[in-house]
């Protein structure tokens, strides 16, 4: 599609002016006259664009390489003269002092000289192996992408994960986008045929370069020791961004840059896509997810949305709030002071803002004061993080301020986004760890992000940076994260094998621990064999175990568990994700199970090329539009 648009602009004679043709889904502009391809949404060195009509075969990869446009015109002119006059064996010199001979319409060769520059005119037989020359693009075995759907259903903005991975993010987001196109074709085929689904656009958000353009790198270089040079520079380029974010000086720079860049990209995207009516989601990886989380927790909902809640809050304060205070006093065996609190129009929120001086001014004796203050203190510790409950009242504003400063979050003026994110996806995120370090013991189950109603915490089981969120909401329960369904609708084979023999795990591992690795080796090296394709892999493994007398003879080959067994028990994890599960764990590959430590780094970087992650993102995004997968995946929520 891009080539057709460029050729149409060229054929229409639009090269006279500075004509700009959008390409690559609108992420790049081609300036036709300058023959340059320029990135639209991020900074990138301009690339050359060439109209290719004549090609020669390369030496190594055997691919056709285009000549420059100027030399292609010379070749075309010589070719047309030869065809018209019937005069062949034309000899031309390329800009690189190489020789091209047109023997006939089907035989044209390019000779690369092997002699010195003074002897380049020697006969072709004295030169290197001739290379084929071809006119036109017909019959060239090269896959030219057909282009992306013009319809954009949703926009996802992804800030950098921090560190020196800024260049990595552009490539990673490109991989994520390409995988999403293949997942749409595989799992949303019906919706595509009905023209309900186009594609999802993913754009990277740069903030690392702005932080390090402040001159801090020069200061770090001055104090960095010369020993173990590579390791120290690696730490300066990666890990130190975490410390920068926890600095009040640089935290403000980071949040300002991230928010302004996300707002800029959103505005620019709407300008270039005026017909866009979809929503906007955000995806953060590693430190980027923490930055997004802090931004979202400090967003302000629209006044019109808060008004019904505020009215309900005022009603509660005047009626139910006072009754709630009476219940608290009754619990503390202080019912005789109910009239005092009612006279002062004291509701629950006002009670929790009281100090000892306030209670003393109300005439409460020392003993009851101590009971009330102890009750307030204990409830505050149990419900440390609850910035919003019944609306945006003054008590909640005070609670937010207490959370930001008193609980370790860096005090900064968090900018507001120009849109309300539909869903927040966190990949390999340390959010849970940072909340714990800041002193948060528990997240209020009634809490939800002010402007974003969806939140998914996705992680690889071996990712050393990832932490869970759900245990902070329901600490009294122990439960596993949701197992992310495989994009082909099954469990990975090695997980199925061990599910089948889990009942005999103790005897199995006690008799032969090494057989675990043997089974995994079989599954990982024979995944492409007809045996495994036929679904008999687990049966073969179990037959080995029977033969070695490591399992009882009545153990049957692993069978897919019944639908009832795969149903995950319903667990209330609060409103942070609209009542749905938050933590999702990827299925590790069989080869990764050999050694968790070897694949730890890969586990932290795998999300951008993971089909399972991409499919979950697409499923949740399109579910907000009432569009579902062609076939539900087993085990999905």
Strand content: 5-15%
Strand order across the largest sheet: 12-11-13-14-15-17-16
- The dominant shape is elongated
In helices, the fraction of residues equals 40-55%
Q: Structurally, how many domains make up the residues?
A: 4
Main pleated sheet: 7 strands, parallel
Structural class comes to alpha/beta
Span of the ends, CA to CA = 38 Å
For the CA atoms, what is the radius of gyration? Answer: 33 Å
- Tally of separate helices: 26
Low-confidence stretches: 116-122, 307-319, 381-385, 387-406, 497-542, 544-551, 557-566
Number of strands: 17
Q: Average the pLDDT over all residues and give the rounded result.
A: 77
Domain DDHD: 417-623
InterPro entries: DDHD_dom, PA-PLA1, SAM, SAM/pointed_sf, WWE_SEC23-DDH2
Organism: Polioptila caerulea (Blue-grey gnatcatcher)
GO molecular function: metal ion binding; phospholipase activity; triacylglycerol lipase activity
Description:
With 637 residues, the protein is α/β, with parallel strands linked by helices. The protein folds into 4 domains: 49 residues, no CATH class; 84 residues, no CATH class; 277 residues, no CATH class; 60 residues, Transcription Factor, Ets-1 (DNA polymerase, domain 1, Orthogonal Bundle), CATH 1.10.150. The protein has 26 helices and 17 strands. A 7-stranded parallel beta sheet has the order 12-11-13-14-15-17-16. Strands 6-5-10-9-8-7 form a 6-stranded antiparallel beta sheet, covered by helices on one side. The chain has a 4-stranded antiparallel beta sheet with strand order 1-2-3-4, with helices on one face. Helix 19 crosses helix 23. The protein is elongated. InterPro entries: DDHD_dom, PA-PLA1, SAM, SAM/pointed_sf, WWE_SEC23-DDH2. Pfam families: DDHD, SAM_1, WWE_3. Belongs to the PA-PLA1 family.
């Amino acid at each position: 599609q891009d080539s057709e648009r460029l050729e149409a602009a060229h054929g229409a004679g639009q090269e006279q002016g500075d004509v700009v043709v959008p390409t690559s889904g609108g992420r790049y502009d081609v300036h036709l006259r300058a023959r340059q391809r320029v990135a639209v949404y991020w900074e990138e060195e301009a690339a050359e664009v060439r109209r290719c009509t004549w090609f020669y075969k390369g030496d190594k990869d055997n691919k056709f390489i285009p000549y420059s446009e100027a030399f292609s015109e010379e070749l075309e002119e010589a070719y047309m003269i030869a065809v018209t006059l019937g005069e062949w064996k034309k000899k031309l010199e390329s800009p690189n002092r190489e020789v091209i001979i047109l023997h006939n319409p089907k035989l044209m060769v390019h000779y690369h000289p092997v002699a010195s520059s003074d002897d380049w005119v020697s006969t072709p037989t004295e030169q290197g192996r001739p290379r084929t020359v071809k006119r036109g693009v017909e019959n060239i075995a090269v896959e030219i992408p057909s282009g992306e759907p013009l319809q954009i259903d949703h926009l996802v903005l992804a800030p950098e994960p921090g560190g020196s991975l800024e260049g990595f993010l552009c490539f990673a987001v490109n991989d994520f986008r390409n995988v999403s196109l293949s997942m749409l074709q595989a799992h949303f085929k019906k919706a595509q045929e009905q023209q309900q689904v186009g594609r999802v656009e993913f754009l990277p958000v740069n903030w690392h370069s702005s932080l390090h353009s402040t001159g801090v790198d020069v200061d770090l270089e001055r104090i960095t020791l010369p020993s173990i040079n590579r390791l120290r520079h690696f730490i300066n380029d990666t890990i130190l961004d975490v410390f920068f974010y926890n600095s009040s000086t640089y935290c403000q720079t980071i949040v300002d840059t991230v928010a302004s860049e996300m707002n800029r990209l959103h505005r620019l995207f709407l300008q270039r896509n005026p017909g866009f009516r979809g929503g906007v989601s955000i995806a953060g990886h590693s430190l980027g997810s923490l930055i997004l989380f802090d931004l979202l927790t400090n967003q302000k909902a629209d006044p019109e949305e808060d008004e019904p809640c505020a009215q309900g809050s005022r009603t509660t304060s005047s009626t139910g709030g006072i009754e709630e205070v009476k219940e608290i006093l009754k619990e503390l065996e202080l019912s005789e002071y109910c009239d005092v609190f009612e006279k002062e129009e004291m509701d629950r929120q006002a009670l929790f803002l009281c100090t000892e001086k306030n209670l003393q001014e109300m005439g409460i004796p020392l003993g009851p004061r101590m009971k009330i203050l102890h009750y307030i203190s204990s409830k505050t510790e149990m419900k440390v993080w609850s910035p919003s409950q019944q609306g945006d009242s003054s008590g909640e504003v005070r609670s937010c301020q207490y959370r930001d400063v008193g609980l370790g979050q860096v005090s900064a003026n968090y900018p507001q986004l120009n849109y309300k994110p539909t869903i927040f996806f966190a990949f390999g995120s340390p959010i849970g760890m940072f909340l714990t370090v800041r002193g948060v013991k528990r997240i209020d189950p009634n809490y939800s992000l002010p402007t974003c109603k969806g939140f998914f915490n996705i992680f690889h089981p071996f990712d050393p940076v990832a932490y869970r969120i759900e245990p902070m909401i329901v600490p009294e329960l122990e439960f596993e994260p949701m197992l992310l369904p495989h994009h082909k609708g099954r469990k990975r084979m090695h997980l199925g094998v061990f599910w089948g023999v889990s009942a005999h795990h103790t005897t199995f591992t006690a008799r032969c621990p090494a057989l675990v690795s043997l089974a995994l080796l079989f599954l990982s090296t024979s995944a492409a064999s007809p045996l495994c394709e036929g679904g008999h892999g687990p049966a073969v493994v179990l037959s080995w175990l029977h033969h070695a007398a490591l399992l009882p003879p009545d153990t049957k080959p692993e069978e897919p568990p019944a639908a009832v067994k795969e149903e995950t028990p319903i667990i209330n994890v609060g409103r942070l994700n609209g009542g749905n599960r938050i933590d999702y764990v990827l299925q590790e590959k069989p080869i990764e199970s050999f050694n968790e430590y070897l694949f730890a780094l890969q586990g932290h970087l795998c999300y951008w090329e993971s089909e399972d992650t991409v499919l979950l993102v697409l499923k949740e995004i399109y579910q907000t539009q009432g569009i579902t997968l062609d076939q539900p995946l087993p085990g999905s929520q």
